[in-house]
Amino acid sequence: MENIAPALLDWFYANRRILPFREDPTPYHVWLSEIMLQQTRVSAALPYYERFLAALPDIPALAGCEEEKLHKLWEGLGYYSRVRNLQKAAKIVCTQYGGQLPADYNALLALPGIGEYTAGAIASISFGLPVPAVDGNVLRVFARLYNDPRLVTDPQVKREFTARVMEHQPPAKAGDYNQALMELGALVCLPNGAPLCEQCPLGTLCRARAAGTALSLPQKTPPKARRITPVTVVLVLNEGRVLLQQRPAKGLLAGLWQPVLWEDTTLTAAETAARLAALGLDCTGAHFTPLPAAKHIFTHIEWHQSGYFLTVPEQPAPAGCVWAGKEQLEAAYTLPGAFKVYKKLLLTKLL
Ligand code: SF4
């Protein structure tokens, strides 16, 4: 295989998207953008990126940010462990590296939430180090370029693909080369549907294109079936406020706020009333109105939510809970995307 870098880089310089973290690729900017883009499309992530940086312009600011504000800045992006790890890493960077990310691939890799790909992206793009940054886009491009039908999810195969990526990398342009591969995967060698081979700078070299196999590559192990979990959600209302409870500090949606709920069960109105009473809540005279069903998909779990809303007499919030009005719901408490149907209902109809 002829070296792909010259054609790839020419294409990149002519076609790359202008993105804020590319225009000012400081280590912090590249780090933040890569973490945001792990589970989020570029167009969806951009407003979050701008807002996050305006609020927390550098690593010391991130390290010192109060947890609720941090969650609020991430609200809507999901996968909150990403932002918690960002902050954990920022604290380490402040104590060990004076608030600046280290120009060292292995030191980056040792930080919470930074895997091989992110370490490679920061090291090559911001520090110009000749290291790989292999994400799903790059694996797809190389599986097709070499017409290689092996499973890219196999760690050994991924290592071999990474070695191939490095055979083509010009050491003086490591960051541009890595970005060019990702950009080609995002814009031309597309993941869903037919790749745009007519526009591809590697079209004449590509073995899958010649063999007509591009659409079947890359090969991946099929994802595991998700576990379906019924969830009973209860919107307990009083005088324009809703009762929120904080989730445990560890596990799914750790530390975030939610309506009162019970997982792994679909409760009747009578069973729900008994559970609310056990929480210490006075539901005298309350009418249980069914909520619309809602579904939320996590990586391995699917929540099938149903439940009730009811109005209760004025009373203090039970332990671990707070009463939140409309303003606090919008400005202070982070309700994860799993509850977006019920949050909308609260904000538009109930509060
Ligand atoms: S020619 Fe087509 S399949 Fe091959 S790398 Fe380019 S876009 Fe992908």
UniProtKB/TrEMBL annotation:
What Pfam families does UniProt report for this protein, alphabetically? HHH, HhH-GPD, NUDIX_4
Question: Which cofactors go with this protein?
Answer: [4Fe-4S] cluster
EC nos: 3.2.2.31
Enzyme category, top tier: hydrolase
Which chemical reaction does it catalyze? Hydrolyzes free adenine bases from 7,8-dihydro-8-oxoguanine:adenine mismatched double-stranded DNA, leaving an apurinic site
InterPro entries found in the cross-reference section: A/G_AdeGlyc_MutY, DNA_glycosylase, Endonuclease-III-like_CS2, HhH-GPD_domain, HhH_base_excis_C, HhH_motif, MIG/MutY, MutY_C
Family matches, as NCBIfam families:
mutY
Q: Which family does it belong to?
A: Belongs to the Nth/MutY family.
Spell out the protein name for this chain. Adenine DNA glycosylase
Gene this protein is translated from: mutY
